[in-house]
Amino acid sequence: MKDVGIWVVLALVGLVAVSVAFLGGVDEEPAPAPEFTLRSLDGVDVSLSDYRGRVVLLDFWATWCKPCTTTFPELHALQQDYADRGVVLLVVSLDRSEQRARDYFTENGYETDNVLWGSLEEARAVKALYGVGGIPRTFLIDRTGYIRYSGYPTRLTPEEIEAWL
Questions:
Q1: What is the pTM for the complete model shown?
Q2: Quick one: pLDDT at residue 29?
C-alpha cells in the first residue's frame, strides 16, 4: 500500500510540472529570446532583432489548431490595446502551406505583415529554438530582448504587459 502512495505523489508532481510547463507564466529567471529570421506572408524577411526596443508578443500558431483560432482574436485585441505604446505581435505560423495561413488572416480581417512562415521547416526550427511543444504558445519579450512570459495566450494579462512598457 505504501508503494501506491508513492506512485500517486509522483504522478501529482508530474502533473504539476506538465501544467506549469504548458501553462507558463511562472516567475523564472528571464532568458534572452533566441534570435531568428523568417519571411512574412508579405514576402519580407523579419528578424526578432528588428524589434529591439519594443515589447514583442511572439505567438506560435496554426489554422488547424482550434485553440489557436479561438485565442487569437483575444491576443490580437490585447496587442492592439498597446500598439501605440510599442507592443508588436509576431505570429509564427506552423501551417503546412503559406496560402492556408494567408487565407485565414485575410478572410478574418487581420494584417499579414506580422505573420511569419518562410517554410514549414523554417517555422518548425524556430518552434524548436523556443522549446515549444504544444500550441498555441505565446511569449512576451521585453524591450531588451528577454522573455518575461511564456504560456497560453489568454493567460497573458494587461498587467503583465504593463510591467514591461
A1: 0.83
A2: 83
